[in-house]
Amino acid sequence: MVLMCPSAKHHDLAIVSIDPMPEQQVTFQVIREVVSDFMVNEQHVVITDTQPTHLGQVFVRFKN
């Protein structure tokens, strides 16, 4: 008998929401830059991808 742990899906993915959002309309490029700057410079994590989502402002995929 072989026991296997189920593989972790999406363990490298986070949903980011910005609260409060600016009152004026903001492009996704601006949101991407703000999130990337915070994650890389403040949290010291490596981001591999960012995409818009209806669940928040952005999906962030991390290297680790």
Describe the protein's architecture and organization:
With about 60 residues, the chain is α+β, with helices and mostly antiparallel strands. About 25% of the residues lie in helices and about 25% in strands. It has one helix at about 30-40; strands at about 15, 45-50, 60. A three-stranded antiparallel β-sheet has the order 1-3-2, with helices on one face. Strand 2 (about 45-50) and strand 3 form a beta hairpin. It is elongated, with a radius of gyration of 15 Å. It starts with 12 loop residues before the first strand and ends with a strand. About 5% of the residues are buried.
Distance between the termini: 31 Å
Number of strands: 3
**Low-pLDDT residue intervals, each spanning 5 or more residues:** none
- Mean pLDDT metric: 84
Rounded Rg: 15 Å
**Helix-strand sequence:** EHEE
In short:
This protein is of the alpha+beta class and 64 residues long.
Defining key terms:
alpha+beta, 1 helix, 64 residues, three-stranded antiparallel β-sheet, 3 strands, elongated
Write the layout of secondary structure elements.
Elements: E1 13-16, H1 28-42, E2 47-52, E3 58-62
Antiparallel strand pairs: 1-3, 2-3
